[in-house]
Automatic annotation (TrEMBL):
Organism placement in taxonomy: Bacteria, Bacillati, Bacillota, Clostridia, Eubacteriales
PANTHER family: PREPHENATE DEHYDROGENASE, PREPHENATE DEHYDROGENASE [NADP(+)]
Domain (Prephenate/arogenate dehydrogenase): residue spans on this chain: 3-285
Organism: Lawsonibacter hominis
Protein name: Prephenate dehydrogenase/arogenate dehydrogenase family protein
GO molecular function per UniProt: NAD+ binding; prephenate dehydrogenase (NAD+) activity; prephenate dehydrogenase (NADP+) activity
Keywords tagged on the record: Oxidoreductase
Source organism superkingdom: Bacteria
Record-level GO BP terms: tyrosine biosynthetic process
Pathway terms, separated by semicolons: Amino-acid biosynthesis
UniProt keyword Oxidoreductase, yes or no: yes
């Protein structure tokens, strides 16, 4: 008897999940989205085994549900459909913030196992037309289990991650995840948009070097998504921003006082840390 994976939200990540999970064990992959153009594209390009717009019509039969919505959309979906999940089902999400989402998941019945997840992959594009099955190859899959999460469901997620091509599964706490993402992703997006706020931006068009293009690549972001990500992870992000501002102030003060020796020391310290970070060796984000 076939089992069912329902993926709610067929954007870039949800569509890529559906494509990457095709052929996984004995599961049928069902895509759900409220957008008719998205559903039409999914049908025409066989993104999932089947698609529909009514989540309520399929949740009751779903053994696994992956929520690939914007953060607030996940929170709202959990509240609205809390009593419609199949008892014994595994529900997981792909959101870049874990504490707020896992707090919201407490509305679910005890018979439904929610595990917070974060596939560490993506592009600067959005929409199902940019989804592709190889999205997750050699990426990390972060998993935040609850105390009552079953070993069977954790093992199932590990097998799904392997099928999709992730290099490993990293288990951590929601708080540790949010602190990590605030530093490695969210603050980088704030740096990018802040650089683009400079009055010189358009005067420099055509003269950008690769360092400028690399720094600002993610600035053309999905405003609605990143507003929610920043807001829901504000405590962790503010801590990182405070550290960044202190580091920038230190460089500014060193430049202002004209102390080339001190400036050279600071640059050498920062450069050495980057080189150490880039050395081959054990990956600090490997599986626990």
């Amino acid at each position: 008897m076939k089992h069912t994976i329902v993926i709610v939200g067929l954007g870039l990540i949800g569509g890529s999940l559906a494509l990457a999970l095709k052929g996984f064990e004995d599961f049928e992959v069902v895509g759900v989205d409220v957008s008719q153009p998205t559903l039409r594209y999914a049908r025409e390009h066989a993104v999932a085994d089947r698609v529909c717009e009514d989540a309520a019509a399929v949740l009751g039969q779903a053994d696994v549900v992956a929520l690939a919505l914007h953060p607030q959309g996940i929170v709202d979906f959990l509240s609205a459909y809390r009593d419609q999940f199949k008892p014994g089902a595994l529900v997981w999400d792909v959101c870049g913030v874990k504490s707020a989402v896992m707090q919201a998941a407490q509305v679910l019945p005890a018979s439904v196992d929610f595990i917070g997840c974060h596939p560490m992959a993506g592009t600067e594009f959005s929409g199902i037309e940019h989804a592709f099955a190889e999205m997750f190859r050699d990426s990390h899959f972060i998993l935040c289990r609850r105390p009552d999460s079953t070993p069977e469901h954790v093992a199932l997620l590990e097998r799904m991650a392997a099928h999709m091509g992730f290099r490993d599964v990293y288990q951590t706490t929601p708080e540790a995840h949010d602190a990590l993402i605030a530093y490695t992703s969210q603050v980088m997006h704030i740096i990018a948009v802040s650089v683009c706020d400079d009055p010189m931006l358009f005067d420099c068009k055509g003269f950008e070097g690769s360092s400028f293009r690399g720094c600002t690549r993610v600035a053309a972001l999905d405003v609605g998504l990143w507003t929610q990500l920043f807001s829901l992870n504000a405590p962790a992000l503010l801590e990182v921003l405070d550290r960044l501002l202190a580091n920038l102030r230190s460089y500014r003060d060193t430049l202002a006082c004209g102390d080339q020796g001190r400036l050279s020391e600071k640059l050498a310290f920062s450069a050495a840390r980057k080189r150490q970070m880039s050395l081959p060796g054990p990956d600090l984000l490997g599986p626990l």
